[in-house]
Amino acid sequence: MANPRSAAPDIAFRGVGLSYEGPDGPIEALHDVTWDIAPGEPVAVIGPSGCGKSTTLHLIAGLMQPTAGTVEVGGRPIGKPRAATSFIPQDLGLFPWKTVFANAALGLKLRGVPRDEMRARTEAALREVQLEGFEKAFPRELSGGMRQRLALARAIAVDMDLLLMDEPLSAIDALLRETLQQTLLELWQRSGHTQVLVTHSIEEAVFLGRRIFVMSPRPGTLVRVIDNPHMGEPGFRDTHDYDECCRVVRRALETGAREEAVR
Hints:
By secondary structure, this protein is of the alpha/beta class.
């Protein structure tokens, strides 16, 4: 099993806030968020809609800058996107005029990977997400779940040390979703990359997060960090520890919502 490779944090948030101008005035999306994610650690971020989960990923990816505090990746402020970061955004970022194969190969092409290697790695990634046979199709010809799987294939085809995912499996049916969750787990176990998953699913957060960061309603702030030390063990989904962790996360979400209502 992958373990963090050093004690130094791979991702560090220090008093992070983000505000932007809305139609009716300033909107505070994040407020005073502080956390550390160690190298090689898989973390899940969960919270109600509008709490800044997607914003958090954009900050880690270097696509946005905080209006307060600092975000560091690898011990350095993240001012622009990194070549070794794979990011699956909520809108998937697929190009409608490119085929399934071309979309899956895009990250490799941008990195200048030789043609034969690019083909082999792209084909392997498409097999991993069960899209072999659809190489010549276009995104418009795929179901919503298939498009999500294509975005996942593009992310896992490249050499990465950081995988960011924003609801990557939300449109996929239950059984295939569990299969792809297992794929993500095995990928992390093989490569030891740092992984940050944003999800609304308690069960998914517990299956894929060694720690679960629970966010409050907007402005999003960290209300609890839940340790999940048995994540990744064989048969974990069928254990008492899994069920108990799901209950703990659910209670934390309910408590955070109640505290927000009181404020």
